[in-house]
Design brief:
By secondary structure, the chain is of the alpha+beta class. The protein is built from nine helices and four strands. Strands 1-2-3-4 form a four-stranded antiparallel sheet. Helix 6 packs antiparallel against helix 8. The chain is elongated, with a radius of gyration of 22 Å.
Length: 189
């Protein structure tokens, strides 16, 4: 009977400790936000996407890599990014992490590139070009947009980033974070 009681007590202790150990491994929303931007700074698209809530906020690695000048631009300016977590608020499965971010302002380049790409897309030339030629043309157009707009400036903004808990894991769920991760080249949906 004593062995059974010892075994029962040990089992109860272990069972009570398991949820505590599991919750200790769960990162807080502010830690997830820090990791998200640290991966973006390294242009580690796979890891950025692993911390992203839904597909519409995931960085399309294939799309970015298909335009080499775009990928090089993102790598160059993401290295200069600085993000500091100011605070976090958690309410159930939703959290808001307030950050102060310094990152490149690429809105003018993004708009110029979009305009050039749209003009090309409706041209007769684009209708007959192979996909490979179209990707090369987009690469040229991105370089042209950068040349037309000049060197972009860094900007500092304080903003709230939303996170959502899914299957016990906090994930970034915000277009603002997506824009910062892609060197401010993608416009809000």
């Amino acid at each position: 009977m004593k062995k059974f009681m010892k075994l029962l007590v040990m089992t109860l202790i272990i069972m009570l400790a398991i949820p505590t150990m599991a919750s200790a491994k769960t990162k807080q929303p502010k830690e997830v936000a820090k990791s998200y931007f640290a991966y973006a700074k390294k242009t580690d698209i796979k890891k950025v996407n692993s911390l992203t809530y839904e597909n519409n906020f995931k960085v399309d690695a294939k799309q970015i890599k298909s335009v080499p000048s775009l990928m090089n631009y993102i790598k160059k300016y993401n290295k200069k990014m600085k993000v500091k977590v100011v605070s976090q608020k958690v309410k159930g499965n939703n959290a808001t992490v307030k950050i102060k971010a310094t990152y490149v302002n690429s809105e003018e380049i993004s708009s110029t590139f979009l305009g050039l790409a749209l003009i090309y897309a409706i041209s007769p030339e684009a209708q007959t070009d192979s996909e490979e030629v179209q990707m090369k043309k987009l690469d040229e157009l991105f370089n042209s947009a950068v040349a037309m707009c000049g060197k972009p400036k860094m900007q500092t903004k304080t903003m709230n980033i939303k996170l959502t808990k899914k299957k016990g894991k906090w994930l970034v769920n915000d277009t603002k974070a997506y824009k910062i991760a892609t060197a401010d080249l993608y416009m809000d949906n």
